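Known limitations

Files may contain more than one protein. Parsers should not assume a single record per file. Below, a two-record file is shown to illustrate correct handling: read the sequence, read the token line, then continue until end of file.
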Amino acid sequence: MSAAAVEHPCDPCAGEMPTLLEEADRLIERLPGYRVEIIGGVLTVTPPADGAHARALTVLMQPFMLAGLAGGETEVLQAVGLWLPDGPEDYTVPDLCVVDADFEDHLMEFNCYDPAVFRLVLEVTSSNYRQDLRNKVAAYAMARVPVYVIVDRKHTRVHVLTAPIANEYDSHEVYAPGQRLTLPDSIGAEVELDVAELLKAGERRS
């Protein structure tokens, strides 16, 4: 299954049409385990990811934790809402993020937080890989998230995007299996990732 855009229901007998956030809230309640996001004014629903996706995130957490990014000036968290500035109701829920320790003081709307507290966001691609590689690049750049990492299981690559300018990133480095990469220390510490290890963790096992 893949991510699907959802339009407003249009029932003249139902009274006023719900807002996108109201529709998102309804879908979250109706479809537990699905990821509901609004990017560029489009409400997107993504089915639950496979177990290998979860395994890749577990492997990813380890180098961030070992670098000391949890429990001090920053936190390393999964599935925390990020309020996007490019639309009145836009938000996303990155797979993994590094945020300022006081992020909870910067709650915006719909249980999402000010993008200014996000030092890094990371997505592990699933059925919605095009969203991670296209729409979210523009969304995170406009939100001025300094570092965006994509573990692209579809094409067996890891992308590191830095230096957001307007709706894109000025720097886009692509790493293949056999390479190691070091993330910018602006996230709070130097974190080294082994591309082959990450991609292997994200492989489905028969």
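...continuing to the second record:
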Amino acid sequence: MSPRTRGDRPGPLARATGLPPPAERGATIIPDKVVARIAAQAARTAQSRRAAPPPDRSRTAAPSADAAVRTGSVRLHLAMDLPYPTDIPHICERIQRDVAEQVTRLTGLEVGEVILTVRRLVTAAGGNRGRVR
């Protein structure tokens, strides 16, 4: 018989109710919609850190997300506005990495792929001066 580690011991609630240890109780299933909401919030946070929108935020839509969860992994699709000018490939890569890390940390799911669609590029309010002659 092998010695039990601290994680193998049932907690006070399990001892009181006669529940089996957590590993034997079953799996936690997180619906796609919940993972998508977590990803959208993570995208908002990443966008504010990596690519802050221009001061006139009324023209910037919040990031959206879709998620497809399959057997412990998730595939994410994000759509967001980015400020112009910016280094689009670099910013997109960092946002994808930030969102993947946050979703993994909060859900325990492995993020297999993050697809990021840039809906539009947003300039500052004073950027629309017209043509220069």
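Parsers that stop after the first record will miss the second one. For reference, the second record is described as follows. Helices lie at 12-17, 22-25, 32-50, 88-107.
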